[in-house]
TrEMBL record, chains A, B:
Residues 351-425 form the Glycoside hydrolase family 38 central domain. This is Alpha-mannosidase. It holds the Pfam family Glyco_hydro_38N. It comes from Durio zibethinus (Durian). CDD domains: GH38N_AMII_LAM_like. Residues 1-20 form the signal peptide. SMART domains: Alpha-mann_mid.
Length: 1016, 1016
């Protein structure tokens, strides 16, 4: 067997690894206050998927695409660290580390633990991946960070101290304050900021700042943040990977080419250059880059020598960002203040990394859909009780975590890697779907007090509902069979909403759990979706779907917080007793001048000749606004012949002209019924749009199909929609940061420097996860989105969203593929069509936030539909038809959301509560608000509540004690007071949340098994 | 300090290295008689200089040219071997290993020793480099092998068992029998044989043979020799270096892309394919290639898995060539017989690797010159007593060893690497020059019995004598100063020869040590050399030489075996008393029809109108022959537009037409004097030729300057000379193998297969180190060379030598440079001019060998000249003027040479005696001959003589005992009896040598210090 058993050899081997040179290098230098201290930080950066998949990177396969093998890094780093206790290494991406860890013997694991506890090996960042900061949702960021950091805590008992987002393409306020300060990080480092910003900051020595990312939490959530002066690589000439061509330090005088003095001179010159743009006499060299240290000794061998020889004339040491941060902190200096964020990012003129805000919009939507589903599935898993052996939500959590990587949801990965992310999500979903189905079955089954194992109900769900495909609902009920629909609401508020699904029968009737007939509407399915359904079902499932059902059935449901309701669909005996069929009107260009739609307070007017939206009226709040909406596309710039080539591509948005898409068939189809009005527009052969109004809602829902974007003219295209109002927003607009805080944007302007405008479109794009709004002295116009997307206000009064991108050239940032997504059924490939929704609404000034925040939660957490069939008539009597996971008497305050309710693998319950409003955002809701924990867990006795850090890897109290108190330049020295929820009273168990506050708790119950409140 | 001191960590570390996987792979498989056994031989091949210099390869610098770092290989192999005792590795090139070894601590050294003694790490080949086999001299091959193998013996106590010449470009008979069997190797493996040969051998399963390289030594020096079926790399798809793109074995079922079955299938398919061309059920996979195993674990990780999984269906094991050889031997099969050699090598049609036989002719000459000098210097070092602290001959030995590498003396390295070899030789020479000078001073100084430390004579030598540059002799003697010339003869025979050096005085007179005036001749220096001298002295020494002396002084010297004589040059008081000035005649085209030159038995006739040699007459042996001599060049083929491109280049000779060089100035200058006649011909502006006859010699000496070869026409050129006789040699000619055995060559024919001729010139070229000859029923026509060179007999009666090559295209074998040598003085660069000599003679059939062998030794070991100045008149009285290192009464037999006389660093003396004749080569000299050892060491008492293997790393008797006795197909089973010298009688100490035998001895003396025979 492959194990050396001779103790002698083992003993010798230890020293072999420890002492591999006859020359002994002095690497023990500490900090010298009087000199420039160069902190050498040995690091590797592992993209959790990019050119290769995460597994390919880990095992080192597919090297023809990119030579990279994380296994090599982790294997080789250990002997290198053991050989010299002064050597250090930081490791970041837990998705890789966990793959490695589970392959290691206990002995190796114990060695690694020693290296971690000694500080030689330090975990930095600690999430599963180095998530993107533009197109990620804060809940996903928290979840993936928690997943990685809790693993570190459990295995090693340590808490990463440093945020290390060296590669993401711009940096968000939420990252700084929420995933930084609130995670307990002492500092936060990154590599990419705007090139103009960088120049100014280098000149002013303001690369390192105190960053207050949140207006609401201010100095209570600030962090020391450092942008690197160049990138996250070593200075030129100090790359020491196997086969790298930097000059090695050749100090063997018996050989030719001895070069110690040259190398020392190079080192000192590079150090002085960096010291000249850095405050204090501490500078950091990031000694590593993507996937380096495959044979770690090559780096340490050279760094050992540099430290040894440079120290004879200077000043350098093996370090980590923690040591560096402590050294900076020890200087007791004041630092410049930074607010807002570092978006958009341009690495040079005409190279704005704002394309990726939209790249791969279908993947972005899949990630967002799964994110909301994951939240709901975890709630249901909690109610049923977690199964460690599965099915459980772990694989979906893993897949989602990986998908947050800055080359995943960003759309900047190769196509095969994008497929890999989707596959992982799909596998994770399939397992979570089982958890959801069995939990609902368990909760609904009135016999479930004997346990859930024998629940017989097999709930079906419909992940492809967006393309009008739902086999579970497309069942023929004409023989008396009934369709049971269980509707789960993962929000903490009672909720009324219209749900829809396709049905094959025309004479269906809907009853609620009390046996009451519910008003329902049959909305005709649309031709434009027939092709989507047929093609994509074949592409994704490999089988042909049944004939397209003629109708969507829509009706209003009402569901309790964290609960479900049950509805029964059957065919009606009497004609006309069932659903109302929608009326259908087709308007051709010449028929009449305008048509108004809307059954409730909100009405829209379309001009028929132009087939255009022209007017918006809310009769309740008297908002009236002329609104137009149009589609355009940008031509992707082809810079291949330029002196400084820069194409538009997966990362970079560089338009070459805007082209308005004039509707080719200027016709409107209007669908009207008691619940829903719709206006269908075939804008051109590859854009179809539905404008939808709900009787009970005061926003417009726009559903679009864009694609396949034609490329037969040889041009890549980036498709946008513009919604134009008359609001005078004076160049100002607001976009959210990771779905949370809204940040003020001013067109052609940056707060931190005098912007030189070279890309008036691309340079004004910002990421949108929740929404974008503009306002003037009277109104605010808000648009909310169903996924991350790029957008702007390029013209006053107008909001622009980029919906899809199909490009034919690579933009030279490494992915080496054009962003030209196709979908294939065998050899028949088409450009990817994207289906999605956005929502807009115009409010009187000051009233928009309420809708943005509460409806934003609904978009993120749509009602979850589960279907079952029943032959008999006794569902309601044999099942529990309605349920709420919280106390019947309770609902969460309107400004609070449960963003995590999860049973952890150690049996504890993880609860996160989020205040949804910023200070000043809403006169009523932007206040400190209380939540009664006891009401959240009816039927359970809370034994202990521990408030923990955001990522749940340390007690909050400990974290606050350790927090470094940085001084801000120009301030009195005292940090301004900020409102925060007070400490939790262990008896009352009432949690206070101040605006934008998120509080995280471990909750332990008296009984390990869940006791249903109905049994209490 | 960089040493971990915690025992605990060390302990853990050992196991870390040993057990780096939770999965444990079974790598312990042995041989299975019933199955195909795949011997996986993990190996790396380190070129001791090629694209980078040896030191750059070792430390891993200059990686922009080639990613390669031998230090990484040796560092990383140790933990990999320690981790699994079944893993094995072979290491070859000691030039690299020694660099690494001296950097290691004693502890590491002790670990390596354990790995070696356990067989996990096995030294193969064991020379300093993997020497070339075409253009190397057998003495250099022996020396470099001895240097490496004795190091291995001293440090590890082991003797390499296997010849491993996997990369050289064809394989020589001398390698097989001398550097193989006589070194004690059990087998010999190589990668490159002619593509046509390979096809046939694969079909006939005759890649593995018993090779008898020597006609004379026959089965007594045969070896099991295996050519690989493809190259020395793994089968396609089994490359596992860091970043290699072969599919790794992915056996982690928790990750995507599990591929064990695919990889096992690939493995089995490749194994079966190889088994189908191999005898027995053992096949070898060479798992590695150039500079691989930089991170050894990447290979072993995958091989572990292959062994583990394939063994579940098959048959494979970690192995070494030794284990493989033993397995083959154990099968007791008979093997095909192979004689002669494997030259020339073509890797495909039109790709004959016969260009490198001549590439870099100046470097080749430098190496050969240094080789002869090294032999002499070691003798003188022995006489004086070796100094371990130097100066000694070690650095020259090292430089020479490295220069034998198959990308060194071959000329197939990049220019900067060629420069590096030359630099090393130059440094080594400079030190050896000191050894020579001080030894001569010591021996000549009559007071030296008190030790040599205070010898005051400062002997100067003239390494640039070939370009008429010798500052030591160019001293003005007109003021009565005297020039002392000490002439050392490193041959074992007394020797009379004409020496020459430039002098500035016209009226010089030469006296021998007895005070007798010696006849001397002043030969005018030649204009063609003025430019050479001036340019190259500036290029090489950086300084301007003095004015060119007008004369060479030539006179005949007589020197004892391994001894010296002293001559004194002074100016003559009387006019005419000194040297005879040569008469000079210039013949223009129209003057007369012919001119005859030659003062002795040999006379040549030149036709004046054509300025051509036309006739050769030896009046002693009555040989008369019409002889013509001409120059031509081939145009180097430019295949860049061909479907299968193949240029002529450093490796490959691919001519595109032959062009005769017609003398432009058809003039002859004839120089005549009492000792020497010369005919000077300026063939064209860039070829100058001197045809030289010595009164006392019966051969023609031709001295040429070729270059700078013009390239302004855009064509590369390969310059040849042809000497044409009327001999009817019937396509047959003979060339030497590494300066030793002559091998019969037949034009357009191969012994081993039916040759398909596609390159009638290049495909008939063979390497020449000593000489080439043709014969018919009456005469033999022999040409001897001063360096390795390519040549052939393309036309019956004619011998062709390639003298220089200047090419403008690379030939796609990796060097990626055109062979376009230039020499620069600052920014003024010119094509390299080559100066050299060859010698020819026509003998009656059967009488040529005597001259070829004995004069060949003189070419290899020219008389060594050392100069001193003396103001006074008492040199002879205050010095010992003549010396012989052997007994005054003794001389070596005419057929025996001392090829090594060296004091080793352990105080022993290494003596090698070589029989110079093959069986049947000469009726008198091709016989068993005796040498009296006692006579070789006058004044010393031999305490012990131990016969050892050729490379002096084991006792000969032990070696013979271990020798494997292979069976040859079709023979009776008994190997034919061969004549060998008998065992050494320890009392008589008379050594018998049979034809072609070389015997090697350790000699130990009673006294450690050398006692001069004069003092005895």
């Amino acid at each position: 067997m492959g194990i050396v058993s001779l103790l002698g050899v083992v003993l010798l081997l230890g020293i072999l690894c420890a002492e591999s040179k006859y020359m002994v290098y002095n690497t023990s230098s500490g900090i010298d206050a009087g000199k420039i201290n160069v902190h050498l930080v040995p690091h590797t950066h592992g993209d959790v998927g990019w050119l290769k998949t995460v597994d390919q990177y880990y095992v080192g396969s597919n090297n023809s695409i990119q030579g990279a093998c994380v296994q090599n890094v982790l294997d080789s780093i250990l002997p290198a660290l053991l050989a010299d206790k002064n050597r250090k290494f930081i490791y970041v991406e837990q998705a890789f580390f966990q793959r490695w860890w589970r392959d290691q013997s206990e002995l190796i694991q114990s060695i690694v633990k020693k290296l971690v506890s000694s500080g030689q090996l330090e975990f930095i960042n600690g999430g599963m991946c180095m998530h993107d900061e533009a197109v990620t949702h804060y809940i996903d960021m928290i979840d993936q960070t928690t997943l990685g950091q809790r693993f570190i805590k459990e295995e090693f008992g340590v808490t990463p101290r440093i945020g290390w987002q060296i590669d993401p393409f711009g940096h968000s306020a939420v990252q700084a304050y929420l995933l930084g300060a609130e995670v307990g990080f002492d500092s936060f480092f990154f590599g990419r900021i705007d090139y103009q910003d960088r120049i100014k900051r280098k000149k002013e020595k303001s690369l390192e700042v105190i960053w207050r990312g949140s207006k609401s939490l201010g100095s209570s959530a600030q962090i020391f943040a450092g942008a690197f002066p160049q990138n996250y690589e070593p200075p030129r000439g100090f790359y020491f990977e196997v086969n790298d061509d930097s000059p090695i330090v050749q100090d063997d005088i018996d050989l030719f080419d001895y070069n110690v003095q040259d190398r020392v001179n190079d080192f000192v010159a590079a150090a002085i250059a960096q010291a000249n743009v850095t405050r204090t006499n501490h500078i950091m060299w990031t000694m590593g880059t993507d996937f380096k240290y495959q044979y770690a000794l090559t780096w340490f061998r050279n760094m050992d020598k540099l430290i040894h020889y440079v120290n004879k004339v200077g000043f350098e040491l093996y370090s980590t960002p923690s040591i560096y941060t402590d050294a900076k902190y020890a200087m007791s200096k004041s630092w410049p203040l930074k607010t807002d964020d570092y978006f958009p990012y341009a690495d040079r003129a005409n190279a704005y990394w704002t394309g990726y805000f939209t790249s791969r919009p279908a993947l972005k939507r899949y990630v967002r859909t799964m994110s909301g589903y994951h939240l709901a599935a975890r709630q249901l898993e909690f109610f049923k009780g977690r199964s460690d052996s599965g099915p459980n939500t772990d694989s979906l959590a893993d897949a989602l975590a990986i998908a947050q990587h800055h080359d995943a949801v960003t759309g900047t990965e190769k196509q095969h890697v994008a497929n890999d992310y989707a596959k992982r999500l799909s596998i994770g979903y399939a397992e979570a779907e089982k958890v959801v189905a069995s939990s609902l079955a368990c909760l609904a089954d009135s016999n479930s007090f004997i346990g859930c194992g024998d629940s017989t109900t097999n709930f079906q769900q419909c992940p492809l509902l967006n393309i009008t495909y739902c086999p579970a609902s497309e069942t023929d009920l004409s023989d008396g069979k009934k369709l049971i629909v269980v509707v789960y609401n993962s929000l903490g508020w009672k909720r009324e909403d219209v749900i829809r699904f396709p049905v094959v029968n025309e004479d269906v009737i809907v009853h609620d759990s009390e046996g009451r007939k519910i008003e329902s509407q049959l909305v005709p399915t649309v031709d434009a979706y027939v092709d989507l359904r047929n093609y994509y079902v074949r592409a994704y499932l490999g089988s042909n779907p049944n004939a397209v059902p003629k109708y969507w059935l829509a009706f209003t449901v009402s569901v309790l917080p964290l609960g479900f309701s049950t509805y029964i669909i059957s065919t009606s005996q009497r004609t006309g007793a069932g659903s109302t069929k929608s009326a259908i009107y087709k308007f051709q260009r010449d028929e009449r001048s305008a048509v108004e739609v809307g059954e409730g307070n909100l009405k829209l007017t379309f001009a028929v000749p132009q087939a255009n939206l022209i007017n918006y009226i809310n009769s309740r709040n008297l908002v009236k606004e002329s609104v137009e909406q149009s589609f355009s596309f940008y031509i992707g710039y082809n810079g291949s012949l330029d002196k400084e080539p820069q194409n538009s591509g997966a990362y970079i948005f560089r338009p070459n002209g805007t082209y308005l898409i004039k509707p080719e068939q200027a016709s409107l189809t209007v669908i009207q019924g008691p619940l829903i009005h719709e206006v269908h527009q075939q804008i051109n052969p590859w854009i179809f749009q539905t404008t939808r109004l709900y009787k009970e809602k005061e926003h417009v829902e726009v559903e679009f199909i864009v694609g396949p974007v034609p490329i037969d003219d040889g041009f890549g295209k980036e498709v946008v929609t513009q919604i134009t109002t008359s609001l005078d927003n004076s160049k100002t607009f607001y976009t959210d940061s990771n779905g949370r805080d809204f940040i003020k944007r001013i067109r052609d302007f940056r707060t931190d420097w005098d912007l030189e405008v070279n890309q008036p479109f691309a340079g004004n794009y910002y990421p949108i996860n929740l929404g974008i709004y503009i306002q003037d002295s009277e109104k605010e116009f808000s648009v909310l989105v169903d996924r991350s997307i790029g957008g702007s206000s390029i013209v006053d009064g107008q909001i622009e969203l980029m919906l899809h991108r199909r490009l034919l050239l690579d933009d030279s940032r490494g992915v080496a593929e054009a962003l030209n997504e196709t979908v294939c059924v065998r050899d028949d490939c088409r450009g990817l069509a994207v289906q999605g929704k956005y929502y807009y609404r115009i409010d009187p000034l000051g009233e928009g936030a309420k809708w943005r925040r509460s409806f934003g939660q609904q978009i993120y957490s749509p009602l979850l539909l589960a279907f079952a069939e029943e032959d008999g008539d006794n569902w309601m009597s044999s099942h529990i038809p309605t349920f709420s996971g919280i106390d019947d008497s309770y609902t969460l305050p309107d400004n609070i959301a449960v963003i995590t309710l999860q049973e952890l693998d150690d049996g504890k319950t993880l609860l996160r509560l989020a205040h949804l409003f910023e200070i000043g955002e809403n006169s009523v809701l932007s206040v400190v608000t209380s939540v009664e924990l006891k009401k959240l867990f009816p039927g359970k006795k809370i034994a202990k509540v521990t408030e923990v850090s955001l990522s749940a890897n340390q007690e909050r109290e400990e974290m606050e004690k350790k927090r470094l108190v940085w001084k801000v330049e120009g301030s009195s020295g005292e940090n301004p007071k900020v409102v925060r929820g007070g400490p939790l009273d262990p008896k009352k168990l009432v949690v206070e949340l101040a605006p934008m506050e998120i509080r995280t708790f471990f909750i332990e119950f008296d009984h390990t098994s869940f006791k249903r409140k109905f049994d209490a």
